[in-house]
Amino acid sequence: MPIYSNCYPGCSSSANCLEYVKQNAERGNPASVINCIDEFASTNHMMNIGQVKGAVIDEEIRKKKPIVMAELGAYTGYSAVRFASLQREVAGNESHYYSFEYSPVFAARVREMVEIAGLTNQVTVYVGEFSEQYGVLRGKTVDLYFIDHEKTVYLSDLKLIISSETLAPGSIIAADNVVRPGAPDYLEFIENSPQFSTVRHTIKCGRDGKLLPDLSIATFLG
């Protein structure tokens, strides 16, 4: 079991980012919120998926048109706003985005960011470990999972996802930072599982711009 705290690295940046968005974003406009977060992140350390990796997942959303999406790890709400707004655009108002965030501090900020973006009816934020919250997804088919939380629980949470019977053939599991800082046990499992077809996207990562195969996109085969 990993050791968590209520304030991770990037906690102060998260608070400052929310204030920046409050001061500069157009309320009810998800694109404006995302642009403000990207502007803030250009000069501050933020643990967001970001523009480049975000665009890869955007394309998966456009192709899949997911009625149900779920993310594990929300941080400040960048991914929730970015992906939920696109989900609503391509899949309609009947679609929904479930956001699971361990830290109550971050979860509160995510809810506020979502409200500023005008996505309160699209996004539901759950607080606590995914292992204690994922029951809310039972009976649903999750078309796309996005994993970007504590790397040491990527594999255990993947196994929960599989056992929850929320996957259908064609469901997507996108996982960020599988190389840096890394989730080697997750990669070993999912890339060798006959239940999945997996590709990794090599992308410039971090401020050093190093090319790494750091974003995993897995398709559930059944």
TrEMBL record:
Keywords of this entry: Catecholamine metabolism, Methyltransferase, S-adenosyl-L-methionine, Transferase
Pfam family, one: Methyltransf_24
Matching InterPro entries: SAM-dependent_MTases_sf, SAM_O-MeTrfase
Keyword Chaperone: no
EC number from the UniProt entry: 2.1.1.6
Enzyme class, UniProt record, top EC level: transferase
UniProt-listed GO biological process terms: catecholamine metabolic process; methylation
Gene3D superfamilies: Vaccinia Virus protein VP39
GO MF terms held by the record: catechol O-methyltransferase activity
SUPFAM superfamilies attached to this UniProt entry: S-adenosyl-L-methionine-dependent methyltransferases (SSF53335)
UniProt family annotation: Belongs to the class I-like SAM-binding methyltransferase superfamily. Cation-dependent O-methyltransferase family.
Protein name listed in UniProt: catechol O-methyltransferase
Species of origin: Phytophthora nicotianae
